[in-house]
Amino acid sequence: MTKILAANELAEAEKHARQVAEANTANILAARVAKPPASSTPRAGVYGSGVVVSEAGDIVTNEHVINNCARVRIQPLGLPVKVLARDVRNDLALLRAQGAQLPPVKLRAGRNVRLGDDVIALGYPLKGVLSSSAVVTAGIVNAMTGVNDDTSAFQISATVQPGSSGGPIFDRSGNLVGIVRARLLSSAQANPQNVNFGINLATVSNFLDSHSVDYQSAPAVAKPADTADLVERARKSTVQVECY
């Protein structure tokens, strides 16, 4: 026999159902961006992206890109690099290419990016399938936080693919505003479209400060740079990171 609920009981049941559905959805989405468990076997043939942030040759990438790599090098120079620091929680790693003489980017100073701001991402996705040079995608800031309101991340519509991880995200002034981290994948429960996340600038700069990296900052300018000119400069500071 079906129980007939009073109005207040029905409202409470509907509220509970919504909470369960929201929690399940959040768990599903979080699982899709979770990093795979660390392996004890040294990895090779794994690729990601990175960006030069200092005159000393310091490079930022994702920790999951270089996790358990026996050796790491950057392309297209083919230079071996040293892993200086890791932040597993925020998925950041600091590398150094001694004597590489690569131009560093500048971090954005002052006001943070806002919801709806234009952003540009560079990286080396899908090695062996797409271009062997850096690939550029453009989009906007979709949300100021990541999965489950993660305040270390922000959501962007600039498309990213496997291999984009660790690549730079720029504002229209050509200043670094984040590092590519992950994209959501489809599952039986959800089919997200072009949902991508970056590590925000506050988290990146705190990581660099904690390791005494001598980076430079610059404010956003009122007149946006020409996209082609911006990319021409930025690609000189964007590298492919390779486990070998």
Task: Itemize the secondary structure elements and their pairings.
Layout: H1 7-33, E1 47-52, E2 58-61, H2 63-66, E3 72-75, E4 79-87, E5 92-96, E6 106-109, E7 118-123, E8 135-143, E9 153-156, E10 168-170, E11 176-183, E12 196-200, H3 201-210, E13 216-219, H4 227-234, E14 238-243
Parallel strand pairs: 6-13
Antiparallel strand pairs: 1-2, 1-14, 2-5, 3-4, 3-14, 4-5, 7-8, 7-10, 8-9, 9-12, 10-11, 11-12
Write up this protein:
This protein has 244 residues and is α+β, with helices and mostly antiparallel strands. It has two domains: 47-96, Trypsin-like serine proteases (Thrombin, subunit H, Beta Barrel); 106-237, Trypsin-like serine proteases (Thrombin, subunit H), CATH 2.40.10. It is 20% helix and 32% strand. The chain has four helices and 14 strands. The strands form three sheets. Strands 1-2-5-4-3-14 form a six-stranded antiparallel barrel. The protein has a six-stranded antiparallel barrel with strand order 7-8-9-12-11-10. The model is unreliable at 20-37 (pLDDT under 50).
